[in-house]
Design goal:
The protein has about 100 residues and is α+β, with helices and mostly antiparallel strands. Helices cover about 15% and strands about 25% of the residues.
């Protein structure tokens, strides 16, 4: 089932999320970084030449940024959230991502 998650909460359970400053000594997107191979939003570490993904609700390969309509869609679990805010929420198919709804 598709479910709305606050992006910070989702990042805490996503296995692709990491902080490039802590692991690469590279400041990128305030530490909201993504290792997913399909993440297209990246910065390049000039010292190493390595591309570092950026974690955003609107560019996440695991879901899509929630829009206002998602908060009233009966086919989406709103997860207790009632008010939309731009760039703050992501919709993920929990069955596919977690193997079962959480």
């Amino acid at each position: 089932m598709r479910k709305i998650h606050q992006i910070n909460n989702f990042a805490n359970v996503c296995g692709y999320f990491f902080n490039a400053y802590m692991s690469e000594n590279f400041e990128c997107n305030n530490g909201y970084n993504c290792k997913h191979p399909q993440q297209e939003e990246t910065d390049t570490n000039e010292a190493t030449g390595k591309e570092i993904g950026k974690c955003y609700a609107w560019s996440c390969p695991l879901g899509y940024e929630a829009g206002e309509d998602d908060f009233t869609d009966i086919e989406i679990d709103q997860n207790g959230y009632t008010e939309w805010e731009e760039s703050e929420f992501i919709v993920v198919d929990d069955d596919k991502f977690f193997g079962k709804a959480i």
